[in-house]
Amino acid sequence: MPDTPGSAAPMPQRDRWRLEDWLRWQEGLSPVEINPGLERVQAVGERLGALTPRCPVITVAGTNGKGSCIAYLEAMLGAAGYRTAAYTSPHLLRYNERIRLAGVPVSDEAITAAFSRVEQARQGTPLTYFEYGTLAALSLFSEAEAEVWLLEVGMGGRLDAVNAVDPDLSIITSIGLDHTEWLGADRERIGAEKAGIMRPGRPVCLGQADLPDSVSDRARTLRAPVTAAGRDFHWRRQALGWDWLSGDERLDGLPWPGLTGTVQLDNAAVVIAGLRRLRERLPVDRAALERGLRSARLPGHMERVRRRGVEWLFDVAHNEDSVRVLAETVRDEAGKGRVIGLFAAMHRKALSGVLATMGAVVDEWYLPRLEDPQAHPPEAVAAGLRETGVDASVIHTGGLSALLAAVADRARPGDRVVVFGSFRTVEAVMRAGGRVD
Fold this sequence. Notes:
Elements: H1 19-27, H2 39-48, E1 57-61, H3 66-79, E2 84-87, E3 99-101, E4 104-105, H4 108-122, H5 129-143, E5 148-152, E6 169-172, H6 180-183, H7 187-194, E7 204-206, H8 213-222, E8 226-228, E9 234-237, E10 242-246, E11 249-254, H9 263-277, H10 286-295, E12 303-307, E13 310-314, H11 320-332, E14 339-343, H12 352-359, E15 364-369, H13 378-387, E16 395-399, H14 400-410, E17 416-420, H15 423-433
Parallel strand pairs: 1-5, 1-6, 2-5, 6-7, 7-8, 13-17, 14-15, 14-17, 15-16
Antiparallel strand pairs: 2-3, 3-4, 9-10, 10-11, 12-13
Helix pairs in contact: 2-4, 2-5, 3-9, 3-10, 4-5, 7-8, 11-12
């Protein structure tokens, strides 16, 4: 196998590759970005010895809320004294964000060493970029003295690379319409794919009260004990905090989560329910729950920065359900100033519902042209906005740097700038503006 990816750029010998060399090579390793199926990952993972953890495993799937749930689990279990191993995707600014031990991203050197082990075990098996990274993370976790693995599904569940590991607890946060070209065109089909992370006789926690029947049907077939939001547990807002209730158990007066947005109470509640399911193996007391609630952080998710009296709100919301939550947050926090939207999205994302939802709360739109061939052209987004009734006079298109300069010039104290549409949109703005702080 050649030591160069499919580009003209020269590469050093593989034993001297840096992290960026490995990643560039992996991007050209598979002819497709997404290649559903577990056989390849299982074969390589077994050769690596990375699929049989010696500690509990919690796997989280769902259309939205996966990253938040992992953040709460990591913070709560860490506060309880457990050494966690967490794998999430995608990353925002650095690849290392995906693989964390004890809450800290692993080093470039550790990741490249894991990539070398994966390559030795691969033996010509084709792997996608995501599969390669997943196997590297599992290899690192297998060598670490972790006390619990926290795994976020990349897409779907049944055929996702993360599902090569058997979880002791499965959490399904929500089911919405996203990745329909891969998972199916309706919630029942998507639910069936996400329910694929369940295991026979092992507990599953459901974070949404109205999940499709395909999820409960799968649990019933596997005789997997189900703890469901709205039926087995719920939360209640109070003046100075919130309560978590499940049967005879109550946790009154919990602090507000460190992650903002009403939906975060849904995410925190299902995490607490999950930890209660594993309390015999992973006991977590109330003090640790509270510390974890307060300290949980997730870059690019309702992340706020203030500059010259203007609040910048970064959120990777990119489908109708997540954008609806973003719009509700913007509406609930409405002040006297204007709301300025800075938006770009990828080709595979439908625009109409997203634009209609945010069009109701955004006063002025800035649509940058990203240096990414997968991004919608700003002209197409502008046309979509006009179709929803947005006046052309408040729609601006152009290069990212020029639009950021225009926003900085026009925004006044009390205004809010909402940056959303995809991880790549938030990343591009953060890199161009240095998190604008």
